[in-house]
Amino acid sequence: MRAISCLAALLLPVSALAQEQACGGAFPDFVAGLKQEAVSQGHDPAQVEAFLAGVRQDPAVIEADRSQGIFQTPFIDFSRRLISQDRLDRGRALGQQWSGVFDRIQSDYGIAPGVLLAFWAFETDYGSFQGDFNTLNALVTLSHDCRRPELFRPQIFAALELYERGDFDPRTTTGAWAGEIGQVQMLPRDILENGVDGDGDGHVTLKTSAPDALMSGAKMLADLGWRYGEPWLQEVTLPEGMDWSLTGLETTMTVAEWERLGVSARNGALDDGRLEASILVPQGRGGPAFIAYPNFRVYFEWNQSFVYVTTAAYFATRLEGAPVYDAGTPQPGLSGPQMIRLQEALARRGYDVGEIDGILGSGTRSAVRDMQAQLGLPADGWPTPELLSLL
């Protein structure tokens, strides 16, 4: 199951009432607070009662939220697990089947077909499994939970608006454990703001309409900052004597500057020399290397997992015709428990690694790179048993 698909910064502010009743307490009292807030926002009381009638907590949602261990998997293993020849073949076939929709997406938003096809594949296996969690129960459960109520509570009121439009059934609408709906998995507020009636039937139906789902996903990416017609990721070859401390999303240079340092495309040529870009080595100096263009950062507005984002962006390039990356011979990494020990050690030294969860995210990579430099190790951001031992 993937990480949350949008950032709290993209949501409406939580009201004063919601701040008081943001999470916890008896569940019936929490639901009563939701009803009161919905009515205060101008929703019809009868509609609110009908919408929230029978809502319940779902313990399986909390269990799923606490167990996202798949994101502890290193990039090479993760990408090989998600990208198969069958997924490539089906993606290319669907690209042909819905070529008219993808032509509209390229014309309207400047987004290549592979980008949406990759999300479609990873989120729901091209629509074949969209999740069977009751969406309203999931959203209310996560809002009542005190881990991230500010992220989920606004989604309840967005779902209420969809219900009032006739595009959400609180009893039968299902999706992912985190409340995402449809073939490319969008949260209710994203559907309100970016839903597109791609098939012209007067409704935005992301579960059953591929044109609606793909056009809505494209509009959402555009609204998140996708730059029209620009690339997102490309495999590169790095020079001997590379300064590894320059790798990572924290460092950007123009493509022309990277070329002067000896960075070259593994296949073809690098893009516009004026574009700002970063060099990524997801498994350190011994593994594959990529140049990440500005559009790569938009992926993090969809999903916050570094390994997921890099894999989705890479798969999009494969669907556009890029060859399999050169896996190289990366150094052994850390197990989940070892990564937690590393994060704890870094946090004690004052680094902000985010949640200590055993996941090698951007914050942990940045801290590792800085620590490696201090210890005289190649600062490639890839944590090894040697680094853990030194710490």
Automatic annotation (TrEMBL):
Gene3D superfamilies: 1.10.530.10, Bacterial muramidase, PGBD-like superfamily/PGBD. InterPro entries: Lysozyme-like_dom_sf, MltB-like, MltB_2, Peptidoglycan-bd-like, PGBD-like_sf, PGBDSf, SLT_2. It comes from the Bacteria. Residues 335-391 form the Peptidoglycan binding-like domain. Keywords: Signal. The keyword Calcium does not apply. GO terms for molecular function: peptidoglycan lytic transglycosylase activity. It holds the Pfam family SLT_2. Residues 27-316 form the Transglycosylase SLT domain. Residues 1-18 form the signal peptide. GO terms for biological process: peptidoglycan catabolic process. NCBIfam families: MltB_2. This is Lytic transglycosylase. The gene is mltB.
